[in-house]
Please model this.
Amino acid sequence: MANHVIIGGGPAAQAAIESIRQAGSSDPITVISNEPMYARMALPYFIAGEKPEGLMFTANEAYFAQKGVTFVQSAATGVDTTAKTVSVAGGETVNYDTLLIATGSSAVKLNVPGADLPGVINLWTLDDARACAAAIKEGTRVVFVGAGFIGLIVVNALFKRKCQLSVVEIAGQILPRMLDAQSATLVEGWLKKKGVALHTGNSVTGISANADGTKSVQLKDGSALTTDLVIMSAGIKANLGFLDGSGVAVGQGVLVNERLESNVPGVFAAGDCAQGPDVLSGAQQVHAIQPTASEHGKVAGANMAGSGVVYRGSLLINILDVCGLQCASFGQWSDSSDVTCVSNDSRPAVRKFVWSGNRIVGAIFVGRPDDLAMLTDVGMVKGLIQTKADLGVWKKYLSENPFDVRRAYVGSGAAAGLLGTKLTANASKDRDYRFNDLKPAKQVGEAHAILVGTKPVGEPEKVEGPAAG
Ligand SMILES: Cc1cc2nc3c(=O)[nH]c(=O)nc-3n(C[C@H](O)[C@H](O)[C@H](O)COP(=O)(O)OP(=O)(O)OC[C@H]3O[C@@H](n4cnc5c(N)ncnc54)[C@H](O)[C@@H]3O)c2cc1C
Model:
């Protein structure tokens, strides 16, 4: 019998639990997490008032009982890789045979005067989301410090709540790690039309409290913004301090190989805190996105159960709704040597494919959801990159017809290739956990059911929204 221990309770941990069980291991699993199990990427729906808090959670006692999981809600404070133990706050020690580090990352607070004032928050945890939801109503002024991927996800949520939004970004453009300058300019124009004030090429030098309860955010250019709430979205850092002295090799994350195993045999890492192989370059990278966390967890879990799965590597994926404008970028989107790019400033719309030979290795999309095949093309191009499909003659066709991805996707064989792709030997299964035992919101159509192997289920029940106030 092996003791599987997982530190962290986010999507990487959950994928690992599922994968260990699907691989046939019935050995005990202990999850040590300082928060309950929930999905961070669902938090914007809670803040926007679209989903109740209960839907953020991804596990409960019944789920743990069904999966044979002992859940310890506490922080891991150290790992002894010789004795194979994890120390937990409060003094407990947990023995492991296989260990998964899935502790995610934390938001970084800018080191400026006033950063710790009440009303200056990060938006990373459920507690942060509760604080934000309690602080806002229609017309609330909010200043965002940082215009990255997560910052703009939250901008979108507060736009739905009709808040007055300002964004300060030190780079000369918004989304500097997601969009090129041309695409960012179009998105900036869209945001301004939606009433979001942008201060790019500027930075916050301090925050002070005013007598009337508002705050003043001082900017480098000498100007100041008066606001009710400040949300810091200026970067994240992997949670790995407890590994100091453990001998586990760490760069920006735990350095892991194509089995998601660290330099210490039996110690795996997954998700935001793991620096694992990138599908295109093979280099070890931290992607800090949900798809990577889920894939890492699945592969690591299978290998903890002894399956010997080799991971193809993760693809950098950013998909974002910016106040009604869809933006996506994949892989090596910033390369510029061999590029197909079409844009229309007035829609606004951008399509950029980055080529390496006959393969697409990066892409940018900007457009409204109802623009010609915008959303389905995003998914297909992601598939072309992920399968490393050699497009052969379809490269010329796609370069001349960038709005007709479907033919190239099917004609090149990428669609057929993807259908046969599996991350591990086991196809994904339903997790069997739903808040209040709710059934899935949609029935699966016959054609879709053939592809995903699920069975249609009953009508959804109504979910009550969060209590007003
Ligand atoms: C508001 C928001 C929106 C997002 N939207 C998207 C999106 O649209 N698309 C996307 O791809 N990604 C999105 N993300 C990012 C995504 O949520 C993360 O990439 C994902 O949660 C990473 O999963 P994880 O399991 O690695 O870590 P986490 O989800 O961070 O879970 C790790 C858990 O481990 C716990 N932990 C940390 N240290 C310890 C310790 N020492 N002991 C015990 N427990 C510990 C943490 O508290 C946490 O509960 C979003 C994130 C946020 C905050």
The radius of gyration is 23 Å. The mean pLDDT is 92.
